[in-house]
Structures are given as C-alpha cells and as structure tokens.
Design brief:
Strand order of the largest sheet: 1-2
Distance between the termini: 28 Å
Number of helices: 5
Strand content: under 5%
CATH topology: Cytochrome Bc1 Complex, Chain D, domain 2
Helix content: 40-55%
Bound molecules: heme C
Structural class: mainly alpha
Radius of gyration: 15 Å
CATH class: Mainly Alpha
Number of domains: 1
Protein name: Cytochrome C
Keywords: Heme, Iron, Metal-binding
Largest sheet: 2 strands, antiparallel
Shape: globular
CATH superfamily: Cytochrome c-like domain
Pfam family, one: Cytochrom_C
CATH architecture: Orthogonal Bundle
C-alpha cells in the first residue's frame, strides 16, 4: 500500500503538467517544447532558470517558482493571458523594461508559458 502511494507520487512529479494548478494551465502549451525554446532563445543569459544548464543570468529576476509569483514584471496580475502577452511583447507591457521583445510567436509563447508555470 505504502509503496503504491509513493510510486504514484513520483509519477505526478515527473509529469510537470500534473503539478500545475488548473488556473495556470496553458491550452496547447507543452512544457517540454517550452524548455527547448527557452534554451534556444538564451533566456538564461538574463534569468536564473532551475533545471536549465548555465541559466544563471542576473539581469532579470529568477524564474524559480514563477507560478507562485503574484505579478508579471511587477505590473500585470500573473495569469496565463497576461504572461502570454508579456512573453510576446515585454516593452508594450512595461515601457522601458530591460527585457527585449524576443519575437516569440503565439504558439511558442504558449509552450514557454507552460514551461514557466511548471518551474519549482
Ligand atoms: C536581455 C535580458 C533578458 C532576456 C534575454 C530575457 N529576459 Fe525576461 N526579463 C528581463 C528583465 C530585466 C525582467 C524584469 C522586467 C521588469 O520588471 O520590467 C524580465 C522579466 C521576465 C519575466 C517576469 C518575471 C517576474 O517575476 O515578474 C518572465 C516570465 C521572463 N522575463 C521570461 C523570459 C523568457 C522566457 C525569456 C526568453 C524567451 C526571457 N525572459 C529573456 C530580462 C531578460
């Protein structure tokens, strides 16, 4: 009995999506693809990103536990719509921000958002 429970817990942790609360789920977002995009776009140059090798940037805030953050960039309540907006056009959300528009397409932003909400 004990053993079965422990095993179920491991499975839940392994599938990132299982750990994401319903209100932070991104329709069409795939956290695995998101991780790849985040690596390719070098987000780690500016951010600490748990689990991503070399992602130790200090220009922007650490993205650890991002789902628990109350606001996106301190200006928008942290929810899927606002995060997607931010990822696609940071300067429009926070004029003067040091985070550049990285040219993420809508679909890419969805994957990246799913990845970010799965971060511990
Ligand atoms: C040139 C540096 C730079 C790069 C590259 C960059 N960011 Fe940022 N990012 C920032 C800065 C600076 C902030 C803080 C913005 C603010 O508060 O105005 C930020 C904020 C954020 C936030 C909001 C964090 C919070 O706690 O509010 C997220 C999410 C984010 N970035 C994700 C990404 C992702 C994903 C990428 C790659 C696609 C990326 N960033 C690339 C500099 C960068």
């Amino acid at each position: 009995m004990m053993r079965a429970t422990a095993f179920a817990t491991v499975i839940a942790l392994a599938g990132c999506d299982e750990a994401v609360p319903d209100h932070l789920r991104i329709p069409g977002g795939n956290a695995r693809l998101g991780a790849r995009i985040v690596a390719e776009r070098d987000c780690g140059v500016c951010h600490v990103i748990p689990g991503l090798r070399g992602a130790r940037g200090r220009v922007g805030p650490s993205l650890a536990g991002f789902g628990a953050r109350g606001y996106v960039a301190g200006v928008l309540p942290n929810n899927p719509d606002n995060l997607l907006w931010w990822l696609q056009d940071p300067p429009a959300v926070a004029p003067g921000t040091a985070m550049p528009d990285l040219g993420l397409r809508q679909e890419e932003a969805r994957h990246v958002a799913a990845f970010l909400y799965g971060l511990r």
